[in-house]
Write a structure and sequence with these properties.
This protein is an alpha/beta fold. It has 8 helices and 9 strands.
Length: 267
């Protein structure tokens, strides 16, 4: 018998005397401890499932980006006509994107690109058949993953994209614009890019190291540049995005839009 055996037997005897002296209290303690153990397992399982779901979501979505209307120009010499508008003038571009069918096959896409916008665009085009010929954009950007999907959908349908005078197409919106088989920019349209950034809560960042964050940023950049190349646009467009802070926009001049083939026509 080991040296610890008498001590263990003594503890068991003490527990047995306490149990039989007050069995109700002892039973309640056992039940309470059991409930604590079950709750701990449940909480741990739920946390693990939530973390796995968040990691899977990050893996399949390039980025979900904030969209702020009326960001200032990164180049003082390049005027942003839309930024000079009085507050409250025109549609509220901070709201989720709306799709409105107009005459002559024009589909107006106005507002922020949010998760699910690409799917809604696909549904709208499928519903309208060949009637839609032009997608008119007025957007401060938003979800990069949706913008890329929208561009590919627009190109698959052979549609024209257009940004009208005093219209805006900023941040991730030029990715959508690049999808047009013909890309028409009016003089005075504000078309520009900046660094993309992920919207992530503190909980979503759990388990993501600095190298993983950098790798995700590189993957997003590669997807954006691949799209531009596939659409026949000069990937130098995205160099200006990488160089421009998120709180500013690099607005392109009409000559630059044509030089980079981001617009096929400036009128």
């Amino acid at each position: 018998m080991s040296a610890d055996a008498p001590q263990a037997n003594g503890r068991f005897a003490t527990w047995r005397r306490a149990f039989f002296r007050n069995p109700d209290e002892a039973i309640l303690r056992v039940v309470f401890v059991a409930l604590l153990m079950v709750a701990s397992v449940a909480i741990g399982t739920d946390f693990g499932e939530r973390l796995a779901a968040q990691q899977a979501e990050r893996a399949r979505a390039p980025a979900e980006q904030l969209a702020t209307p009326n960001l200032p120009s990164a180049r003082p010499g390049v005027i942003d006509p839309a930024h000079s508008k009085p507050a409250g003038d025109g549609p509220d571009l901070s709201q989720p994107m709306t799709l409105e069918l107009l005459a002559n096959g024009r589909l107006e896409a106005t507002g922020t690109i949010v998760a699910g916008t690409a799917e809604r665009l696909t549904d709208e085009l499928d519903k309208r058949g060949s009637y839609v010929t032009t997608v008119v954009l007025n957007s401060p950007g938003g979800s990069v993953s949706d913008a890329i999907a929208m561009a590919r959908t627009i190109r698959a349908h052979g549609l024209t994209t257009q940004v009208e005078k005093d219209g805006r197409c900023a941040s991730s919106c030029p990715l959508v614009f690049s999808g047009g088989s013909e890309r028409i920019a009016a003089e005075g349209a504000a078309i520009g890019v900046h660094q993309v950034f992920s919207v992530a809560s503190a909980a979503e960042l759990i388990g993501q190291s600095l190298p993983e964050g950098l790798a995700e940023g590189q993957r997003i950049t590669a997807e954006c540049q691949r799209l531009l190349v596939d659409m026949g646009v000069d990937p130098r467009v995205w160099i200006h995005a990488l160089e421009t802070p998120p709180r500013q926009i690099f607005y392109f001049t009409g000559d630059e839009l044509k030089e980079f083939a981001l617009a096929t026509t400036v009128e």
